[in-house]
Structures are given as C-alpha cells and as structure tokens.
Design goal:
By secondary structure, this protein is an alpha+beta fold. It has one domain (6-87): YhbY-like (Translation Initiation Factor IF3, 2-Layer Sandwich), CATH 3.30.110. The protein has helices spanning 6-16, 32-41, 60-70; strands spanning 21-25, 47-52, 75-80, 83-87. The chain has a four-stranded mixed β-sheet, with helices on both faces. The two termini are 16 Å apart.
C-alpha cells in the first residue's frame, strides 16, 4: 500500500466533508463482522465515514488502528471527533482522481 501525500489527504478530506457516516463501531469494536461490513461498503464506494459510538470500548484512534490492521488496503485519511474517514481506491475503475 502506498502512502497518501498531504495534498492527497487534503483532497480526500474535502470530498468527505459532506458525507454522512454509514457504519458505526459499537461495543464489539472492529470485529470480523464489522470489518466484513466495511469491506462490503467499499464495494460500492471508495470514500466513506465511520462513526465510533459512545458505547464502544475503543476510542477513535484505536478504532482507526483496528481498521488499518484488519483491512491493510484501506487508508485512514482522517480521524476527527468520533469520526473516521476511510479511503480505498477501486482496483479496476477508480472514481476519485488523486492529485500527484
């Protein structure tokens, strides 16, 4: 996995600004079931937000680390508050063009 540059992360953050979180990290944390749901969500889109709810035993940084560990091809673009912005380019037809 190649690292994102700061310019690319900024571009992805601007695209993610208007998105709503589509998954939540709950009391089970970043379990296999959660990672499977996240993987499935990436089949439909390249950029998404994940919310860490209050009942979770993990904080946002721990949840982001769990996502990175469970799905190494996913880039954690940003963590802010209780929200994680994740990016995984489509291997065949990427929709998002990243700046160089």
């Amino acid at each position: 996995m190649t690292k994102l540059t700061s310019k690319q992360r900024a571009h992805l953050r601007s695209l993610a600004h208007s998105l709503k979180p589509i998954l939540q990290v709950g009391s089970d944390g970043t379990s296999a079931a959660f990672l499977e749901s996240l993987e499935e969500a990436f089949n439909n889109r390249e950029l998404l937000k994940v919310k860490v709810i209050d009942t979770s035993d993990l904080d946002v940084k721990e949840a982001a680390a769990g996502i990175r560990e469970g799905l190494p091809e996913v880039h954690v673009v940003q963590t802010i508050g209780k929200t994680i912005v994740c990016y995984r380019p489509d291997p065949d037809e990427p929709e998002i063009r990243l700046p160089r």
